[in-house]
Amino acid sequence: MSRLQTFDEAQAVDHAMEVFWTKGYDRTSLDDLTSELGIAPGRLRQAFGDKHGLFLRALARYRDSQARSLAPALLSEGLVLPRIRAIMLGYLQLAAEESEPRGCLIANTAGEVLPGDPAVADCLAEVISVVEDGFLQGLEHAVRQNELPEGLDLAANAAMLTMVLQGLQVLVKLDPDPLRLTPAVDAALAGLNALSRTGTLRSV
After folding, report:
1. Using CA atoms, how far apart are residues 20 and 14, in angstroms rounded to an integer?
2. 108: nearest Cα among 166, 165, 29
3. CB–CB of 168/91 below 8 Å?
4. I want to staple 95 with a disulfide (CB 3.0 to 4.6 A). Which of 3, 122, 150, 172 is the partner?
5. Contact 72, 34 (CB under 8 A)
6. How far apart are CA 19 and CA 125, in angstroms?
């Protein structure tokens, strides 16, 4: 009874997201989940149906806790372009500090679970859309504050930044020295840097 009374479904989804992110979908067992979440198998099934149902909830939580944080970060006070670079370099730094870099839950899942799972595919597409929209909002803000000139294909550049970020998240899991990729990030951002009216893309 005490477990039932203290069960926090949102907290359980948070913990499940971390487990799936670290171990992957296939390598995460029900025993792993019940142990990490501190609930009985029957309670897990009652709340989430099965492992797949909990995984979908974990992907939605990743969308809300990770992907949706991008737009506010880029819309805060100050220049946008240095912040984009800082965000990407932050992933390199995090990977350098981890003994086994986890990369991105979305990129990991795309390689592990797809194709063949339409529900997961829909979740991943939604997360990527949120990330792309976050970059788009940031670039629009950069134009409004005269950091970038008008007339750019902002949608294409937002898609490019999303592609770079997702590719980066795959490479950090493979490269023994993630910080080595810093010049590659700068090369990817060079086009926007050249268009910047402030010349401060490298200032972080």
Report:
1. 10
2. 166
3. yes
4. 172
5. no
6. 21
Q: What is the pTM of this model?
A: 0.90
- Give the tens place of pLDDT for each residue, 154-177: 999 999 999 999 999 999 999 999
Token pair listed for 201: 């893309």
User: Both tokens of residue 173?
Assistant: 């899991």
**pLDDT digit string, tens, across residues 59-71:** 999 999 999 999 9
Please say if the pLDDT value at position 32 is more than 90.
yes
Do 186 and 109 meet the contact criterion of CB atoms below 8 Å apart?
no
Place of tokens 């240095």: 82
- Under 8 Å between Cβ of 72 and 116: no
Q: b vs e for 70-103, b when ≥16 Cβ sit within 10 Å of the residue's Cβ?
A: bbeebeeeebbbbbbbebbbebbeebbeeeebbb
Q: Exposed e or buried b for every residue in 147-167, given b needs 16+ CB within 10 A?
A: bbeeebebeebbbbbbebbbe
Spatial distance between the Cα atoms of 160 and 122, rounded to a whole number of angstroms: 21
Please name the residues in contact with 155: beta carbons below 8 A apart, sequence gap of 6 or more. Answer: 136
Chain centroid to CA 50: 24
| Element at 105 (helix H, strand E) | helix 105-113
